[in-house]
Design goal:
Low-confidence stretches: 1-29, 65-76
Largest sheet: 4 strands, antiparallel
Shape: flat
Distance between the termini: 43 Å
Number of domains: 4
Mean pLDDT: 81
Structural class: alpha+beta
Order of helices and strands: HHHHHHHHHHHHHHHHHHEEEEEEE
Radius of gyration: 44 Å
Number of helices: 18
Helix content: 55-70%
Number of strands: 7
Strand order of the largest sheet: 3-2-5-6
Strand content: 5-15%
C-alpha cells in the first residue's frame, strides 16, 4: 500500500499594502492578523492530517476487500455478462474522468501526487478486467473515477483561488487610498488573503479558495463605505447645482469622482457646474430673440443651449415653444403653395402642402375639404401610372415586380378590373416558376443523396412546368447532364461462397452463388449476406456511372452467438 509523505512546513506569506515602505516602518510587535493566520493554518493542518490518515486506512480496507473478492466468479452466465457490462461501463467512465483531468495539468506537488495515485490504479484495474475478475475491476475503476474527479475539482479550486488572489491584488491597489474609511475590514481582508496563499502552497486548494472568497467579501464592506461617502457628495453636488453655485457643485462632484471615477452622474454634474454661467446667459439671449419675433434665431439658440446642457428644462421648453410658433406662421405659406399646385394639376404637391397646413391646424374644415378633393384627383392619376408600370414589367418578364404592382393597385383601389386580370395572369406564371424552382431543388437534393432515379423524375417534371421563354442556367444544365449520366445501369460483380444468401436491400434477391454479375442503376445500396447459424454480413456499395467498382465479396463467416 502506497503511503503519502508528510507535507513540508508551510511557508508564510504576507500581503504588503500598496503605497507603503516596509523598511521605513518602526519595529513593532507581531501583527494581530499574522497571529490569527498562523492559528487558522495550524488548525487546518491538523484537520487535514487526520483526514489523510482516514483516507489511507479506507483505501487499504478497500484494496483488501478487492483482493478477497478477486477469486470469485459468477456461476450464472447472465450474471457474468451483467458484471462484464458493468465493468466495461465503469472502465469507460474512468477513462473519461482521466481524460478530463489530463486537460488541466499542474506542476503543484499535491496535484502531481493525486495524479500519481490515479495512474497507480490503472494497471491493477486493467489486469482485473483482463482476468475477468469483474467485481474487482468495477471497484478499481470506480475508485479511479472518484480520484480523477477529486483532482479535477481540486484544480478548479486552485484556479479560482489563484484568480481570486490576482483580483484581490487589483482591488487592494484600487482601494488603498480609501483604507481610512474602513481600516479594520481592510486588515481582515489582508489576513484572509495571506492565509489563502499559504493554503495554496500547501496544496489545500479548497480552504485556499474559501479564504480568498472571504477576503473579497470583506473588501465589499470597504466598497460600502466608499458608496456611502459617494452618495453624500452626489447629494451635495445636486443641491449646489440647483442653487446655481457652480464652485460648490464642482467641489462636491470632483470628490465623488475621486471615490468612483466612472460615475456618470458625477461626471455629468461636474460638466454642468463648469458651464452653468454660460447656459444662463444663452437662455437670456434666446428669450430676447423670441420676444422680438425672431423665432428661428430663438429656436437655434435654445437648441444650442440644450446641446450644452442636456438637462436644462428651460432650454428644452424654449425649443418646443419656438418650433410650434414657426409651424403656425408657416400655415398660410403652405396653403398658398397647395392652391398653386392644384391649379397646375400637380396633385401630389398639392396634397403635400395641404397636409403640411393641416398639421398646423388639424381642425380647419376648408383645408380638409381641399385635401380630400386633391386626393381623389391624385388617385385617378396614380391608377394610370401603376397600370403602366405593371405592363412594362410584364413585357420584361419581371413577373414578381408586375404582380407586386397589381397587388398594390388592388390594395389602393379594390375591384380595379385591369389589375385583377393582370394579377391572375402573373400569378399563373409565378406559380409555374415556383414549381419549376421547387422541383429543381428536389432534384438536386435527391441527387445529393444518390437517389438518382427520383431525382431524374423530379427534374423531368420541372422541365415540363418551365415557361417557354425561360432558359436553363449553367448549374441547371450541369444537373441535367449529371442525371443523364446516372440514368444508365452499371454492371456489378459479386463474389460469395455458394452457401450465403445474398440480397440487395430493397432491390433484388441474388440467392446463393460463387460469382455473379448484376446490372444496377446508380445509387447507394446495402448488400446483405445471410447463412443459418452465422451472423449477417452487411456491405454498403456506392454505384456511380463512370466509376470502376471492385467485385463485392459477401460471405457469412462469423458464427452467430448462442
Amino acid at each position: 500500500m502506497a503511503t503519502e509523505t508528510p507535507a513540508p512546513p508551510a511557508r508564510k506569506h504576507r500581503v504588503v499594502a500598496l503605497g507603503t515602505d516596509p523598511a521605513a516602518a518602526p519595529r513593532k510587535a507581531m501583527p494581530r492578523w499574522l497571529i490569527i493566520t498562523a492559528s487558522i493554518v495550524g488548525l487546518l493542518l491538523v484537520v487535514l492530517t487526520v483526514r489523510v490518515i482516514i483516507v489511507l486506512r479506507e483505501l487499504e480496507r478497500a484494496r483488501s476487500e478487492l483482493t478477497a473478492a478477486g477469486g470469485a466468479s459468477a456461476a450464472d452466465p447472465s450474471v457474468a455478462f451483467a458484471n462484464r457490462s458493468r465493468a466495461e461501463s465503469a472502465r469507460q467512465a474512468a477513462m473519461r474522468s482521466i481524460e478530463s483531468a489530463g486537460k488541466i495539468p499542474s506542476q503543484h506537488p499535491t496535484a502531481l501526487q493525486m495524479m500519481v495515485e490515479v495512474e497507480r490504479l490503472r494497471d491493477p484495474a486493467d489486469k482485473a478486467f483482463g482476468d475477468r475478475d469483474y467485481a474487482k475491476a468495477i471497484q478499481l475503476f470506480e475508485e479511479i473515477s472518484r480520484r480523477a474527479d477529486t483532482y479535477t475539482a481540486a484544480m478548479e479550486d486552485m484556479r479560482k483561488a489563484q484568480d481570486g488572489y490576482a483580483n484581490f491584488l487589483l482591488a487592494i491597489a484600487r482601494l488603498q487610498k480609501f483604507r481610512p474609511l474602513a481600516p479594520d475590514k481592510f486588515e481582515l481582508a489582508l489576513t484572509a488573503a495571506g492565509a489563502s496563499q499559504q493554503f495554496l502552497d500547501q496544496g489545500s486548494f479548497g480552504p485556499a479558495r474559501q479564504q480568498i472568497d472571504e477576503a473579497m467579501k470583506t473588501l465589499g464592506a470597504v466598497e460600502e463605505s466608499i458608496k456611502a461617502e459617494l452618495e453624500l457628495k452626489l447629494a451635495e453636488g445636486r443641491t449646489a447645482l440647483a442653487q446655481g453655485s457652480g464652485q460648490a457643485a464642482s467641489t462636491a462632484f470632483e470628490r465623488a469622482l475621486e471615490l468612483q471615477p466612472e460615475n456618470e452622474i458625477a461626471a455629468q454634474g461636474l460638466a454642468r457646474a463648469k458651464t452653468i454661467d454660460r447656459v444662463f446667459a444663452m437662455l437670456a439671449d434666446a428669450d430676447r430673440f423670441e420676444a422680438a419675433g425672431k423665432l428661428e434665431e430663438a429656436r437655434d439658440l435654445f437648441a444650442k443651449t440644450f446641446e450644452l446642457d442636456g438637462q436644462s428644462a428651460a432650454a428644452q421648453a424654449g425649443v418646443s415653444r419656438t418650433k410650434a410658433a414657426i409651424k403656425k406662421r408657416d400655415f398660410d405659406s403652405a396653403r398658398a403653395r397647395a392652391t398653386a399646385a392644384a391649379a397646375e394639376n400637380r396633385w401630389t404637391d398639392a396634397i403635400a402642402a395641404y397636409v403640411e397646413a393641416q398639421k398646423v391646424e388639424p381642425d380647419n374644415e376648408e383645408v380638409k375639404k381641399l385635401l380630400a378633393e386633391s386626393r381623389v384627383r391624385e388617385r385617378e392619376q396614380r391608377v394610370q401610372d401603376m397600370l403602366k408600370t405593371a405592363y412594362d414589367a410584364e413585357r420584361q418578364y419581371a413577373w414578381a415586380d408586375a404582380r407586386r404592382v397589381y397587388l398594390e393597385l388592388l390594395a389602393f383601389q379594390p375591384g380595379q378590373t385591369e389589375a385583377e386580370e393582370g394579377l391572375l395572369r402573373t400569378g399563373k406564371v409565378t406559380r409555374a416558376l415556383l414549381k419549376f424552382e421547387r422541383l429543381l431543388e428536389d432534384a438536386r437534393s435527391l441527387a445529393a443523396r444518390a437517389d438518382f432515379q427520383a431525382a431524374i423524375n423530379s427534374f423531368n417534371e420541372a422541365m415540363a412546368s418551365k415557361p417557354a421563354y425561360l432558359e436553363l442556367q449553367l448549374d441547371q444544365i450541369e444537373l441535367k447532364e449529371m442525371l443523364e449520366r446516372q440514368s444508365k445501369p452499371v454492371s456489378i460483380a459479386f463474389v460469395s461462397d455458394g452457401k450465403t444468401w445474398v440480397t440487395i436491400s430493397g432491390l433484388q434477391l441474388l440467392g446463393k452463388f460463387t460469382t455473379t454479375s448484376v446490372n444496377i442503376l446508380p445509387g447507394n445500396y446495402e448488400v446483405i449476406g445471410r447463412r443459418k447459424g452465422y451472423a449477417d454480413v452487411r456491405e454498403v456499395i456506392r454505384v456511380r456511372a463512370g466509376e470502376a467498382i471492385e467485385p463485392v465479396t459477401i460471405i457469412a463467416t462469423k458464427r452467430a452467438a448462442n
